[in-house]
Design brief:
With about 190 residues, the protein is an alpha/beta fold. The chain contains three helices and 19 strands. The chain starts with a helix and ends with a strand.
C-alpha cells in the first residue's frame, strides 16, 4: 500500500509540475517586486514568484504551501483539518498570469479526478489574486480580499464573504462549484 501511495504522490507531483511551468521563461522567482499591500490596481508588475506545485500530506507543509513563501499550487493527498485560521497570500503566476490553486484532489493521466479531499478550518482568508479552490470540499468560511476568487468543481461548506464589492464582482463558481451558505459582501 505504501508503494501505491508513493507512486500516486510522484504521479500527481509530475502532473502538477507540468501544469505549473510558466510560458514565460523570465524566471522572476528571485525578483523583489513590492507587494500590493491591499491596494488594488491593474498594474503589470511581475509576481513575486513563479513556481511549480507543492504536493503535501500534512498540515505544516500545507500552511507553508499557501503562504507567501509557498507555491502557486497547493495540492493535498489526503483530508486535512485545522483548528486555526488559514491565509492564502503572496503573488504567484501560472502561464504569465497571477494564479493560486488549492487542489483538493488527485488525478490520472487524462486529468480525471481520482480522489477528492476535505480541507477543514474555521476560516480561510484569500489574499492572493486569482485563487481557486478546486476538486474537493472546504469546510469553513472563506473571506476574500483579492480579485478573481473561484470555486471550480468543488464545494464550500460554509459562507463566502468578500471584503469589497469589487472582489465579489470578479468571483466565479464554475464546473459544479457550490457554496452551501451565503455569498455576500461583509465589510
Amino acid at each position: 500500500m505504501k508503494k501505491l501511495a508513493a507512486f500516486a504522490a510522484i504521479f500527481v507531483l509530475t502532473l502538477l509540475v507540468g501544469c505549473g511551468n510558466s510560458a514565460n521563461n523570465n524566471n522572476t522567482a528571485g525578483t523583489n517586486t513590492p507587494a500590493n499591500n491591499g491596494n488594488t490596481s491593474t498594474s503589470t508588475t511581475a509576481p513575486d514568484a513563479v513556481t511549480s506545485a507543492s504536493v503535501v500530506d500534512n498540515g505544516e507543509d500545507f500552511k507553508k504551501a499557501i503562504s507567501k513563501e509557498g507555491t502557486w499550487i497547493a495540492a493535498t493527498l489526503k483530508d486535512l483539518s485545522f483548528t486555526e485560521d488559514l491565509v492564502v497570500e503572496g503573488e504567484f503566476s501560472n502561464k504569465g498570469k497571477p494564479a493560486r490553486k488549492i487542489a483538493l484532489y488527485t488525478q490520472d493521466a487524462d486529468h480525471n479526478i481520482t480522489n477528492s479531499f476535505r480541507l477543514t478550518a474555521p476560516k480561510i482568508t484569500i489574499k492572493s489574486e486569482n485563487t481557486q479552490i478546486q476538486g474537493g470540499t472546504f469546510v469553513g468560511d472563506v473571506y476574500v480580499e483579492a480579485n478573481g476568487f473561484k470555486v471550480v468543481n468543488a464545494t464550500i461548506e460554509g459562507n463566502v464573504y468578500f471584503s469589497d464589492d469589487k472582489y465579489q464582482a470578479t468571483y466565479s463558481a464554475s464546473d459544479q462549484g457550490k457554496v452551501t451558505g451565503v455569498t455576500e459582501v461583509k465589510k
